Amino acid sequence: MAITEPDHVNLTVTPYRVAEGTHVVPQLMEAPPVGHFYLNSLVIQGREPVIVDTGTLINRERWLEQVFAIVEPADVRWVFLSHDDPDHTGNLLPVLDTCPNAVLVTTWFSVGRMVDHYEIPMDRVRFVRDGDSFDAGDRTLTAIRPPLFDNPTTRGLFDATTGVYWASDAFALAVPHPVQDLAALDADYVEDALLLGARLISPWHTLLDANKWNAHVQRVRTLPIEIIASCHAPAIRGRDIERAFQTLSATPDLDPWQEFSQEDLDGWMTAAGIEEAE
Ligand SMILES: [Fe+2]
Ligand SMILES: [Fe+2]
Question: What whole-number distance in Å separates Cα of residue 75 and Cα of residue 67?
């Protein structure tokens, strides 16, 4: 993909609606030299409101403000963690503190992986395994592992009421500027960017048996998905959904991504006029 940095990008992004009562709470970070990556969460309004992933520590103040402008803390009944990576759990404890009626929906292994840095109130935890559902009053939400992932505890979340599938880290792609819908980006750019994202989050793609992996992907691909929302991408709708699956189907055959080297870093530092620390 083209490695270019746009002149100036405003990193201030605000929540947007992707489906009835369903809002992405975005954060945009610079990721030179490939562009920018989103760090999104989701809020589902409804009879029993749900917060899906909890943003990052560095964005805490803004994230709490934006989330609680959408839902009252006392109304939040569920907090779903797609996995325990820091960009998904950054505000977990403030959420549990501020939302006394919220139950944390996660897994045994996620809790185990968080015990060194978070004290999890186990009386407020519900375990949901891959394929399990839970009832959020006016909708059933089902945990389904996405096509690609960077953490063993990962599960996406499908809301059959709206057709929104939260894909966690899958479908990650760098964006050149803020964009709420994948359709706003050039199709060739999207293809390259999706394949870079796939290789970044799942470097084990080179070990895949394509048939086995495709059977895994079919579980998600055959869901009646209307919108894919995810942590590291704009919303994907309509024909772009099938196009994205089609693009990712090449993943098992891709060469591994060549990581940037110290030479690359030296070049960027020199270009930026920054001297190496002694
Ligand atoms: Fe992750
Ligand atoms: Fe992530």
Answer: 12
**Predicted TM-score (pTM) of this structure:** 0.95
For residue 32 the two structure tokens come to 């030179």
41-44 and 140-144 strand pairing: unpaired
**What is each CA distance from 92 to 79, 100, 152, 158, in whole angstroms?**
8, 13, 19, 21
Question: What is the Cα Rg of the chain in Å?
Answer: 19
| Confidence band, pLDDT 50/70/90 cuts, at residue 217 | very high
Signed CA dihedral, 52, 54, 56, 62: sign only:
positive
User: Residue 276 Cα, ligand 1 centroid: separation in angstroms?
Assistant: 30
In the chain, domain spans: 16-269
Structure token pair of residue 163? 């057709």
pLDDT at residue 275, as a whole number = 82
Instruction: Measure the CA–CA gap between 222 and 144, rounded to whole angstroms.
Output: 12
Residue whose tokens read 């605000």:
14
The band of 278, judged by pLDDT with boundaries at 50, 70 and 90, is: low
Provide CATH code, domain 16-269.
Answer: 3.60.15.10
Distance 168 CA to ligand 2 centre (A): 7
- Give the single-character DSSP code of 180: S
CA nearest neighbour of 151 among 208, 81, 68: 81
Q: List the one residue out of 163, 275, 173, 177 whose CA is nearest residue 228.
A: 163
Gap from CA of 50 to ligand 2 centroid (Å): 19
**What angle, 0 to 180 degrees and rounded to 10, lies between the N-to-C axes of helices 210-221 and 239-248?**
160
